[in-house]
Amino acid sequence: SGAREAGLHFQLQDLFQHPTLAELAAATRTEDGDGDGAGDRDGDGEAADAEAAREPFALLPAEDRDRLPAGLEDAYPMAELQIGMVYEQQRDPDRNPYVNVTSLHVPGRFDEAVFRAALARVVRRHAVLRTSFDLSGLSEPTQLVHATAASPLVVVDLRGGGEDARRTALAEHVRRERTTAFDPAVAPLWRMAVHVLADDAFQWTVTDHHAVLDGWSLAATLAEVTE
After folding, report:
1. For residues 116, 122, 124 and 129, what is the CA-based torsion angle, rounded to 10 degrees?
2. pLDDT at residue 157 in the model
3. Using one digit for the tens of pLDDT, what is the confidence trace for 24-43?
4. Are 194 and 159 in contact (CB under 8 A)?
5. Is the dihedral of CA 214, 225, 74, 138 positive or negative?
6. Is the peptide bond before 77 cis (omega within 30 degrees of 0)?
7. How are beta strands 153-157 and 190-198 bridged, if at all?
8. Is the distance from CB of 16 to CB of 3 less than 8 angstroms?
9. pLDDT tens digit string along 47-80?
């Protein structure tokens, strides 16, 4: 941001590819189009490149695009961090790392129809909630964004039992979720459950693969569903 305010322009990738100031200077374009090296670009060309990169499937080579399954709206390479998470989760099924379970006590009446409609709306808005991973079928590990995906939600009514029964049911559900792995090739890589505790309270449990959601994005997603 500081460089941009000073009239200096470079891509985020340039910052990693040219880690010294001298190298970065050669890849930097000034406000008037001047620069020191091969990184010089005119504003129209840079904008055109950025726009092209946002086109669906633009980040994949042509040979990969030809091998994609039907029903996708986009695909792009996985981040190195995602690859590591998926690999570690698959190689250690007993510990099942990077599968997160978050359970929230929510005051208020639970309306299943409204909740499902809100959840489906959020899934339509956010590609990551419709994403699966292809680790070995293409030239590099790839994220596949499906045009549609299920909104896996289980609703359990616990209002007929006592407090101890409700606690036992919730604890067992969390334990089972914690030990149930995801297949990274199958979207979506998250699931939810709602346990209705009373007419004015319910427990909302979310299980997700850490390769698609982290703390910040999970909080934002749950807030959006709630809103």
Report:
1. -100
2. 98
3. 999 999 876 555 544 445 55
4. no
5. positive
6. no
7. parallel
8. no
9. 566 566 679 999 999 999 999 999 999 999 999 9
Is 209 within 8 Å of 89 (Cβ atoms)? Answer: yes
Q: What amino acid is encoded at 152 in this protein? A: P
Q: Both tokens of residue 76?
A: 């792009």
Q: Quick one: 22 exposed, middle or buried, by C-beta within 10 A (0-12, 13-18, 19+)?
A: exposed
H helix intervals, the chain = 2-5, 12-17, 21-26, 43-53, 62-65, 80-91, 112-125, 163-178, 215-226
Q: C-alpha angle 105/111/114, rounded to 5°?
A: 115
Phi-psi region of 71 (alpha: psi -120 to 50; beta: other; left: phi over 0): left
Place of tokens 């941001």: 1
- Mean of all residue pLDDT scores within the chain: 91
Q: Report pTM.
A: 0.79
Instruction: Record the tokens describing residue 168, joined without a space.
Output: 């036992």
The candidate with the shortest Cα–Cα distance to 75, out of 137, 1, 33, is 137
142-146 β-sheet, strand order:
72-77, 142-146, 131-134
Strand 72-77, strand 201-209: pairing:
unpaired
User: What counts of helices (H) and strands (E) characterise the chain?
Assistant: 9, 9
Predicted confidence (pLDDT) per residue in 158-185, tens digit: 999 899 999 999 999 999 999 999 999 9
